[in-house]
Amino acid sequence: MVVYDRERERRDDAVYAEHKAAVARGEERVLRRTSTGELHSYPGDEIGFTPGRGQAQVSSWWGMAILSAFGCLGFVASVAMFLSPLLHGAGPSWGALWVVGLAGFIAWYGFNLSKDEYKAMRIRKQRGAPKPGSGYVDVDLLELGRPRS
Q1: Which residues does residue 33 pair with via DSSP β-bridges, in sequence order?
Q2: Whole-angstrom Cα distance, residue 84 to residue 17?
Q3: Higher confidence at residue 8 or residue 111?
Q4: What HEC string does 43-87 produce?
Q5: Which of 8, 46, 61, 137 is deepest in the core (most CB within 10 A)?
Q6: Alpha-carbon separation of residue 48 from 4, 11, 56, 90, 138 (angstroms)
Q7: Mean pLDDT over residues 42-46, rounded?
Q8: What is d(CA 102, CA 112) in angstroms, rounded to the nearest whole number?
Q9: CA-CA distance, 98 to 81, in Å (whole number)?
Q10: Distance between CA atoms of 128 and 108, rounded to whole angstroms?
């Protein structure tokens, strides 16, 4: 059961009006719900990565760093698998090359996401901004003066 909250609607309208004004001034902004459910307009540098809407999600820089570390381990293991036939005088295991590429991509991508989220987390902490939530905001529902259902 959803409860209508008039005060929250007023706060949302105020944040949305501020967001639209900032975008009109040329600022790069992202409109998001915070981890507590409040609407917030984030500058682009305060947003790291957005957790997905699936079952298990990584939502912190250190969680993404752990996934990146597993990607690195996979990369090292797949390079060893690729080169191991050379020890026995055979050619490299070319079939393992796609695993090398996939594991390398996971390690690289996870590292970059972790780095971006770490920077954004530090900036949010310095500015006192709340942690973003995982959902997107339907801007059409926030148009000022538009009746809500």
Answers
A1: 39
A2: 61
A3: 111
A4: EHHHCCCCCCCCCCCCCCHHHHHHHHHHHHHHHHHHHHHHHHHHH
A5: 46
A6: 31, 24, 18, 46, 20
A7: 87
A8: 15
A9: 11
A10: 30
Q: What is d(CA 122, CA 116) in angstroms, rounded to the nearest whole number?
A: 10
**Mean pLDDT value of segment 115-140:** 83
Residue with tokens 């390079």: 79
User: HSE on the CB side for 114, CA within 13 Å?
Assistant: 16
Give the predicted TM-score (pTM) of the model.
Answer: 0.72
147 pLDDT band, cuts 50/70/90, is low
> Quick one: CA dihedral 149, 140, 49, 61, positive or negative?
negative
How many residues would you count in the chain?
A: 149
Closest CA to 102 of 78, 67, 84, 130: 78
- Residue-wise pLDDT for 80-125, tens only, equals 999 999 988 898 888 889 999 999 999 999 999 899 889 999 999 9
Q: Name the residue with tokens 């996971």.
A: 106
